[in-house]
Amino acid sequence: MALPGARARGWAAAARATERRRRVEGTGRSPRPEPASQRAALYVHWPYCEKRCSYCNFNKYIPRGVEEAAMRRCLVTEAQTLLRLSGVRRVESVFFGGGTPSLASPHTVAAVLETVAQATYLPADSEVTLEANPTSAPGSRLAAFGAAGVNRLSIGLQSLDDTELRLLGRTHSASDALRTLAAARRLFPGRVSVDLMLGLPAQQVGPWLGQLQELLHHCDDHISLYQLSLERGTALFVQVQQGAVPAPDQELAAEMYQGGREVLRQAGFRQYEVSNFARNGALSTHNWTYWQCGQYLGVGPGAHGRFIPQGAGGHTREARIQTLEPDNWMKEVMLFGHGTRKRIPLGTLEMLEEVLAMGLRTDVGITHQHWQQFDPQLTLWDVFGASKEVKELLERGLLLLDHRGLRCSWKGLPVLDSLLLTLLPRLQEAWQQRTSSSVPGG
């Protein structure tokens, strides 16, 4: 088996060779960018963890033993199949999520990247992100992932309080987290993101803001703030139901979030999405694809995707979900080349609803040009310009609708969910009005 570094050099060399070939074919000029229908991000799901955290209901498994060579072959096979079915010619970014993908071998990461580079155009400077937990990512292991082609890390730090970490069921301590973060920053300077949770049971505003201030002394240029969501079926949900721990206080969580936004703004971070903050241009380009409703392929057990299956003669974008359970998923991949369990065609209205709900999560919002890529006939002005309810939101300073497009204000971003309760029905009404007026006698 080739070493991870050799594999990484392999996909980087393949990317350079493809670019040189395109320059030759284009008589020396830079290659023209592919249309949006031929570009996509790639998400790769590693479903295994050492331990299930008390708050987590994601698709993950605690295995007795992982046949990684078999899993690697199936990830490679499914990536090849979905790239062919999608007709995608350029992969913009790759994200290894989970689960805990830092438990996988760097060989697995390198094999997937090499496959993508051979099947399509993967630029040598593409963002390649790996999610990592502190306990599964000592410095030497992180270096091996870097040699395999990873150039950005997302570290599940979650808290700098050991009592909170135990409550969450995390296997690392605060000192473990800071040690891993320091090693990551040495290896991937400017390209390390950390997650911090808020709204935990018994958590108070002042101490949490103190954690955030402490983190600013150690962090890189990207921080994600996530409010705890108490999910039915998790150990923490049961503890709260039984009264063993207090229920999270939603008002305190809102105070933490608002205070955290202000702390990060003063520290030079841009809140470019509801939960994500970056400075020095260190945005996650992979996640930006999601929020802009770009195409993405989901590889691995339970992965989700959104793409037009052009390679199979399709013309409509589909939402795809892969089989959840790893063993069943591998059997399907070995039989059919992929483990897609659900294929849901997305109509234009469904796409516009996604554009609205996802685009408003960002500080850019939805530009008129972006909206018209999905429906050139029904403009943002047509949908929202004459609505009394929307006008009220504009007057309250929660929304902005102007020559740039539609977006939330700084004040409106934290209450986006409530804004969508007004905006989505208005979109549906405008769509129905247009549809009925286009029907003879309608």
Quick summary:
The chain has 442 residues and is of the alpha/beta class. Helices cover 44% and strands 18% of the residues. A hairpin with a 2-residue loop joins strand 7 and strand 8.
How would you characterize the overall build of this protein?
By secondary structure, the protein is of the alpha/beta class. Helix content is 44%, strand content 18%. It has helices at 4-25, 68-86, 106-119, 139-148, 162-168, 174-187, 205-216, 235-241, 250-266, 285-291, 326-336, 348-359, 368-374, 380-384, 388-395, 416-438; strands at residues 39-46, 90-98, 127-132, 152-158, 192-198, 222-227, 270-273, 276-278, 296-299, 304-307, 318-322, 340-345, 366-367, 399-401, 405-408. A 9-stranded mixed β-sheet has the order 7-8-6-5-4-3-2-1-9, with helices on both faces. It has a 3-stranded antiparallel β-sheet with strand order 10-11-12, with no helix packed on it. Helix 2 (68-86) packs parallel to helix 3 (106-119). It is globular. It is found in: Mitochondrion. Keywords: 4Fe-4S, Chaperone, Heme, Iron, Iron-sulfur, Metal-binding, Mitochondrion, S-adenosyl-L-methionine, Transit peptide.
